Amino acid sequence: MTSLDDLPIRDDLRGRTPYGAPQKSVPVALNVNENTHPIPEDVAHDIVARVAAAILSLNRYPDREFTALRRALADYLGHDLDIDRIWAANGSNEVLQHILQAFGGPGRSVLGFAPTYSMYGLLASGTGTEWITAGRDDEFELSPETAVAAVREHDPDIVLLCAPNNPTGTPLSLETITAVADAARGIVVVDEAYIEFADPGTASALTLLEGRPRLLVSRTMSKAFAFAGARVGYLAADPAVIDALRLVRLPYHLSALTQAAALGALAHSDEMLAMVGEIRAQRERISTELARLGFHPYRSGSNFVLFGGVDDPHAVFQALLDRGILIREIGLPGCLRVTAGTEAETSAFLEAIAVFAPATA
Ligand code: PMP
Q: Which residue has a Cα nearest atom 14 of ligand 1?
């Protein structure tokens, strides 16, 4: 049997482990921050009809410039964005990979603020970019001063700001984003994968794009939009940045089926986003209830909650899994992370976790 070590794999990939969030078939899956509400049936029928029509032309390559999809994404984002400022790919993971391929690479570095999204380090290693992490303030917040000090110290080619941050849920102020954009020499990416779950009135970094050609805002249809399985992420930035990403994408990277499905979902964006308020309410319910039980929930602007005060995270993770409830161990001491589910799923989680409450221990 050949093992990985026997292969002439790149030296910088030796000993690495792939992204590995458990995928298990359980009644209550609250571990990868999906929207756990299914797609409304009438929307699903429209998407099926559009995909069916696209299938009739699958003998041809799809529109390499995914023009109709970029138009729909620009309309959805608003902020007067024209389609020459829009990019998309198979999930925002691929959008981020395109950014690192175009602006990172050997001899270049990317800075993030740990703990943050685990794929950042993997995307860096896959593209041969040096991954640098700086720390956060108390409660995983990130002040302009802390962020700018790290940018000055490391002078990275790319800064990745996760807003709100995964896995902590922490919102990020526009002041911090502006300060980083002002201080950084290179590209600044704001990953807004969870921004639709932010408290009403929260401004997006899209409002900062004008006059900042090196600021990039990435989004995804995987979370609020309930479209994770379709794999559609997108980006707004200066047209020159989009030209840079064209240099590294594979031709026809968005299949005709993906484009048709995404257009169908965007044509029903109100219905697709209808559960966002309800999910936010369940998130608040989780935070309130966990605090009442004596855990330490961190401030969240997303559809998940990180909480501390767990004596033995692995034992609690396993005990919940034994009851069919899958949450996330993220390797932070004393902490676990849970996605806000439907009301019933959230109730199942809260009932199961109550047994481990510090207050009753
Ligand atoms: N950014 C963040 C912060 C995420 O948490 C995720 C998914 N977990 C992604 C990007 C990637 O999502 P997708 O590729 O499904 O768009």
A: 91
